User: Fold this.
Amino acid sequence: MTDVASGAARVLELLALRGETLAVAESLTGGLVAAELTAVPGASRVFRGSVTAYATELKHQVLGVDGTLLAERGAVDAEVALQMARGARAVLEADWGIATTGVAGPDPQDGQPVGTVYVAVAGPGADSGGFEGPAGGPTDGKVAALRLNGNRSEIRRESVRCVFDLLVDVLLANARAQDTEQNGGI
Assistant:
């Protein structure tokens, strides 16, 4: 587990080494992910930009999240988070997209209690050996479901840290998979 500032720096360092770019889609974090990234000197080499889609309809209109999904499940949902990450990646023309959606409080939302958060990563995936999906095949993304405690500020801050940790984990796993593939499956 890392603190937020070192998580942002690690994300940017790993992506810079790979020559890849990052886009962000935020809801409950309201721009905190982008703020932490841009606080790191040299972030512009990697960070393309962000979309803060706080209103549910913007998740659909700007990021391309399926409207039926939003109507049926609400904005606090694992698939919504993944579609937000994919949407940021597409809209901002980045190699990787990350997203946050959830309930920071003080009240529940979409039938979800305070502290329910989903963070997601979308990347090159299937076209680069990527991630393993639920059925064992390649996919372009990964989602973490979180149940966070604390006040509104603490939940938002922990969400930022968790999305950075998820991306670092995915990037390191992706690098290991590519090394194994290049070395003949060793």
